[in-house]
Automatic annotation (TrEMBL):
<dbReference type="GO" id="GO:0016491">
    <property type="term" value="F:oxidoreductase activity"/>
</dbReference>
<dbReference type="Pfam" id="PF00264">
    <property type="entry name" value="Tyrosinase"/>
</dbReference>
<feature type="domain" description="Tyrosinase copper-binding">
    <location>
        <begin position="78"/>
        <end position="95"/>
    </location>
</feature>
<dbReference type="InterPro" id="IPR002227">
    <property type="entry name" value="Tyrosinase_Cu-bd"/>
</dbReference>
<keyword id="KW-0186">Copper</keyword>
<keyword id="KW-0479">Metal-binding</keyword>
<dbReference type="InterPro" id="IPR008922">
    <property type="entry name" value="Di-copper_centre_dom_sf"/>
</dbReference>
<dbReference type="GO" id="GO:0046872">
    <property type="term" value="F:metal ion binding"/>
</dbReference>
<dbReference type="InterPro" id="IPR050316">
    <property type="entry name" value="Tyrosinase/Hemocyanin"/>
</dbReference>
<protein>
    <recommendedName>
        <fullName>Tyrosinase copper-binding domain-containing protein</fullName>
    </recommendedName>
</protein>
Length: 332
């Protein structure tokens, strides 16, 4: 396990042990009450006013999380060495907002999509899409049209992925303010569930990723396009849900955070699995830290930027060990 890493004290000399580890569980293992509590916390965050007055379109605390992902999408949170650490920090920041601002008593769940592509006729049958104990089902054809986008190449919008507005579930009437892409428009929650990417979400695909010998090979095998030359777990999870979840920029809000974060929690779980396979992997990091040349290498001191209204900016070293402060969680 990671605490056997003889270099841990060198890499993170100030790390502090956690008094308690929060246990993140898979969505389908939660009781109906626990699922309802999680969804209620999301709705609470949607009702709280934004604290960031510099983003005019952000009406709620929920909006702030989506707006910040859109802002950072061009600043190196994808296809870089900090892709996994940044999203780990982003997810933990979001989890703390649910707990501290909305009184959520649970822990952040994850979506083990590998269980839904083995034996089900369609990923649409996953319990995360249940209209009562989940986040609602597929988009209804004919209920949504992607607005004209003069900067199509900048927003990366694929109209074919937007089947329509979600017609049931707890968020069917919620109005989004950001997206699709970089557009700022009021619109419904959209989806376009498809099974074309199921082969990249299997247990075999996960095993293949965790067998990669270095962090860089592992990250590319998990993240996918463009470096892998083929879709992998990260992009396939987004594309399988479709709608705004499939968009490079606005996916957090498009799926109302739950499915975006449930998806990324599972990716974080896969990374933690890889980390704990060998002691020296706990603080292993590599890759470029910038999208464009001149490229720089990511290090443990590379900052994971976070909006001041959401949470602190921390160095990568602070999020590498989830069993240490300020993380203090594990996966079961």
């Amino acid at each position: 396990m990671p605490r056997n890493d003889p270099r841990a004290d060198e890499y993170a000399p100030d790390r502090q042990s956690c008094e308690t580890l929060l246990e993140r569980r898979e969505w389908r293992t939660l009781s109906a009450t626990e699922k309802a509590d999680y969804i209620a916390a999301i709705q609470c965050l949607q009702s709280l006013p934004s604290l960031n007055t510099t983003v005019a379109a952000a009406k709620s605390r929920f909006d702030e999380f989506q707006a910040y992902h859109i802002e950072q999408a061009d600043n190196g949170i994808h296809v870089t060495g900090q892709f996994l650490p940044w999203h780990r920090h982003y997810l933990r920041t979001y989890e703390l907002a649910l707990k501290n601002e909305c009184g959520y008593q649970g822990t952040h769940p994850y979506w083990a999509w590998e269980q839904d592509v083995s034996g089900l006729s369609s990923i649409a049958n996953s319990p995360v899409f249940d209209p009562i104990t989940g986040f609602g089902g597929d988009g209804v054809p004919g209920t949504y049209s992607v607005p004209p986008d003069a900067n199509f190449t900048l927003s990366k919008i694929n109209p074919a992925a937007f089947k329509g507005c979600v017609g049931d579930g707890p968020f069917k009437d919620y109005v989004l303010h950001f997206g699709p892409g970089k557009l700022v428009t009021d619109h419904c929650l959209t989806r376009g569930i498809q099974d074309d990417y199921a082969e990249h979400l299997t247990s075999a695909a996960m095993a293949n990723a965790t067998q990669q010998p270095t962090f860089e090979l592992f990250r590319v095998e998990l993240e996918g396009i463009p470096f892998s030359g083929a879709f992998k777990m990260h992009d396939s999870g987004h594309l399988s849900v479709g709608g705004e979840m499939s968009n490079f920029y606005s996916s957090p809000g498009g799926e109302l955070h739950p499915l975006f974060f449930l998806h990324h929690a599972n990716l974080d779980r896969v990374w933690w699995t890889w980390q704990t396979m060998l002691p020296q992997r706990l603080y292993e990091i590599s890759g470029r830290s910038t999208l464009d040349p001149p490229y720089q290498n990511v290090t443990l001191d590379t900052p994971l930027q976070m909006s001041a209204s959401l949470g602190p900016t921390v160095p990568i070293r602070d999020v590498m060990d989830i069993w240490s402060e300020p993380n203090c969680y594990t996966y079961v």
